[in-house]
Amino acid sequence: MPVPYYERHIFFCLNDRDKGEKSCAHDGAVAGFDRCKSRVKKEGLSGPGQVRVNKAGCFSQCGHGPMIVVYPENVWYAGVQESDLPEILESHILNGVPVKRLIYDPGVKGANKVK
Q: Using a CB cutoff of 8 Å and minimum separation of 24, what contacts does 96-105 make?
């Protein structure tokens, strides 16, 4: 199996639905993305072999956001506020321990479930 270019990807849903419908962008996901990306860079965690913070479109989980997905672990986080980001970075990204209180099960049959 090839060595991954990045150890982890942090994907932020930044979907902005029309007509004022509930979406991650309306719930502060853009500010959270900016803060997370800045913190990862500041901590020297970004770049090849480390962490990549990515913008993403809709995860089809509207109403549960802001949503973040971390790969390769396939951990979905829901309702993530800016104040949760330091805990996610410290616990999950640096120490490999997902933040259980924020974990969301997208309910996809056959998906890897984190407990």
A: 98/70, 98/73, 102/77, 102/78, 103/75, 103/76, 103/77, 103/78, 104/61, 104/64, 104/67, 104/76, 104/77, 104/78, 104/79, 105/76
Is residue 105 within a helix (H) or strand (E), and if so which, with residue range?
A: none
d(CA 71, CA 19): 32
Q: What is the pTM of this model?
A: 0.87
Q: Is 28 left (phi over 0), alpha (psi -120 to 50) or beta?
A: left
Size (the chain), residues: 115
How do residues 6-47 score in pLDDT, each as one tens digit?
999 999 999 988 777 788 888 889 999 999 999 999 999 999
As given in the structure block, the two tokens for residue 110 are: 């056959």
